[in-house]
Design goal:
The protein has 82 residues and is an all-alpha fold. Helix content is 71%, strand content 0%. The protein has 4 helices and no strands.
Length: 82
Amino acid sequence: MSLPLHVVTTEAMALDPADRLRLAAELIDSVEGPEDPGWTAAWSAEIQRRSAEADARAARGEPRGVPWEDVRARVLARLGRA
């Protein structure tokens, strides 16, 4: 017998953040299909590219990226939640 979703959600939200992240990853893994090697390779290359760009900016004395607060404000503004 399965538990109602609201009960599971309440219990999950009581977990510490690290356990919630692990649970989220397990839930996502449980509904995704097999891993796409092309996707994995593409994301790996993109991560490397972005990291190299950030390193280059830092080497020039520029900020490595945009502060989270600025990114969050922009996203919320686009969603009409600012």
